[in-house]
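tool_call: predict_structure(chain=1)
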Amino acid sequence: MQTLIEAEEKPLGVIESLQQGFNFLNRHLWLLLPLIILDIGLWLGPRLSIAPLIQGVESLLADQPEMPADVAANFNTAIDTLQAFGSGYNLLSLLAGLLTGIPSLMARLDIHAIGSPISPVILLSDWHTVLLLVASLIPLGVLIGSYWLTLIAFSLEGKRIRSAAFLRRWGWVWLNVNLYLLALLFILAFFSVMFGVIGAFALVFGAAGALFIAVLWIFFIGFSIWLSISLYFVVISVAMDGVNLARAVWRSLNVVGRNAVSTLGFFILAQMLMEGFARIWARLSVYEWGVALSILGNAYLGAAIVTAAFLFYQSRYQHWRRTRAMIMLNQSDEHA
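tool_result:
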């Protein structure tokens, strides 16, 4: 005999969500336009390079006193990574919108590895200018990302795009994503200070202190992974349901907590698809025709996966609400 929960209509599975995401996108291909326009702009437009600033940081780090061999090896690796980042990063990539999930190909590729017409490279050597640009580009990128997410949400709900309700939702998503960014920045700053203080005290205890720091670091990495998966649907909840940040966090924790295996499966499969095809796009992008093809392919795949995430979240959350309502109704009938 089926239980009350089993009798309720089952939510979408991982594969079903992805399939419906692709099917929906095939009927709404215009959702690709913001992604394609953004990537073409990053491809053909000017590039803001922070290489001079990174070189200054490298020079400062290179002047450090002699270190043990194992520490020096890690130190040199960090410098090489920093150098590669500084030479290949385009500051305009921030227009892809932090936390909004915009699948921008140009934001993740090394600018030197892209087949491109000659476009001006603007070298930034002043920290004040860079900070001002970052403070401007991040909210602007979130604005672009919020617009695209609101387009998906309204399209899934069958609502009119050209309406005051759309503009209100767009502004609401932009506000809450920025608040989310600030909250994550505060958490990161808190943990950075905490690790700095604990590290200073641990140095006093020698090997035991180093072991404690290693264990604490492993715990922090595990906590970060858990938190990133648990908050996977926060921005989607804001865009889809129009709730505030606090409610969106609660709903995301609720959906992930009650559907941990399915959510983890969706998360892993989505990452495998995006990262796997990213290597194909990177190989094609050494040619100009390959860049254009990769932009289209990445936009299509990324938009389908984001749409599938919307559908997965909506199905799981609504299923929980219906199940809870049925349980409460059943309990009230028993007491009647």
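agent: The two ends are 24 Å apart (CA to CA). Proceeding to next step.
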